[in-house]
Amino acid sequence: MALEPGLTDVRPMARRRRHLSNQGVYHVYNRAELGAAIFASETAKRLFVEAMFRTVDRHGWELFAFAVMSNHFHLLLSTPRGNLDLGMHALQSDFANKHKAFRGSIGHVFQSRYRADHCAAGPLAAARMDYVHLNPVRAGIIPFELLSQYPWTSYQSLRRPKQRGLLSLGAGLELLHGLKDSPAGWQAYETRLELVLKSDFRLPTDAELFGAVAARRRGALEENKGAASRIAVSRTRLLEEEMARWDACLTDVLKAEGLTRGEMVGRSASDATKVKVALKVRERCPAFSSWFAERLAMGSASNVRRLLSTASSKGSGR
Questions:
Q1: How many CB atoms within 10 Å of residue 217?
Q2: How many CA within 13 A on the CB side of residue 160?
Q3: Are strands 72-78 and 25-31 parallel, antiparallel or unpaired?
Q4: Which of 98, 188, 200, 201 is deepest in the core (most CB within 10 A)?
């Protein structure tokens, strides 16, 4: 439609679609709305870390490093299933809902969708891992000497491999830094971080440089390991593989409930048993509402969203 003379078309541009990859490494970060200190309390930090690991588990991410600050967070990860967008939506929604319930607040929690810088698994990604771990030190929250005791970064578990759970810190050391996930490798990484931090203020001395080189030699892998890359795997193929996992999950849930898919089809679209099954599947995998609508004959995706939202609200007591 033509505009009148002197007028300007100010309609907003469509949001640019993100480039998604199942290779390389993502540095993901986001800040609170208006810079609010949403992570100021220990409880808020714990809620975010719990939501983070649920997302890692459900979306098959490899989380190499993380740091939770007072008003923002940093994640360093890879997404073998090419699903960064789905995972970040799940993570931020999960935390935002719990944070608003905890604080009794409304409105936006984060200032934007999120920011994500993508790079190859090499020196740049290694530098990002250092940056994430040194965030609390550079912010003046804790001195480097006590960083290993700070619970809100992955660095705390560097020398505690049995406490890592779903954290792939060891893989990050090997893949990004070429270091062993062993005492010698941990020492080499600590020495590297200390040198990086000192370099913020002055040039390192010859003794510091020689010490870092010697530590690296002791901690280096004999042969750098590379991540298994999946070249030329399309987004469509990845989604097909993801849906196959959802189908397997649905089969397991139905079997546990003593039900069959044929029985599900014969029930009404809003049947309570279908809702129960869908909730159990959703707890284990991030299946789409449209997928539930088709697999369980639940009508439309909007009907599925309404039913699951209502059931979840009742279950949480809201």
A1: 10
A2: 13
A3: antiparallel
A4: 188
Q: Label each residue of the chain as H, E or C.
A: CCCCCCCCCCCCCCCCCCCCCCCCEEEEEEEEHHHCCCCCCHHHHHHHHHHHHHHHHHHCCEEEEEEECCCEEEEEEECCCCCHHHHHHHHHHHHHHHHHHHHCCCCCCECCCCEEEEECCCHHHHHHHHHHHHHHHHCCCCCHHHHHHCCCEHHHHCCCHHHCCCECHHHHHHHHHCECCCHHHHHHHHHHHHHHHHCCCCCCCHHHHHHHHHHHHHHECCCCCCCCCCCCCCHHHHHHHHHHHHHHHHHHHHHHHCCCHHHHHCCCCCCHHHHHHHHHHHHHCCCCHHHHHHHCCCCCHHHHHHHHHHHHHHHHCC
**Spatial separation of the C-alpha atoms in residues 31 and 111, rounded to whole Å:** 6
Closest CA to 130 of 151, 166, 162, 154: 154
| Order of all β-strands in the sheet with 25-31 | 62-68, 72-78, 25-31, 115-119
192-250: pLDDT as tens digits: 999 999 998 888 889 989 999 999 999 999 865 544 444 445 667 777 887 888 889 89
Query: For 25-219, CATH number?
Result: 3.30.70.1290
The model's pLDDT over 42-58, given as tens digits with 9 standing for 90+, comes to 999 999 999 999 999 98
- Torsion over CA of 182, 187, 188 and 193, rounded to 10 degrees? 130
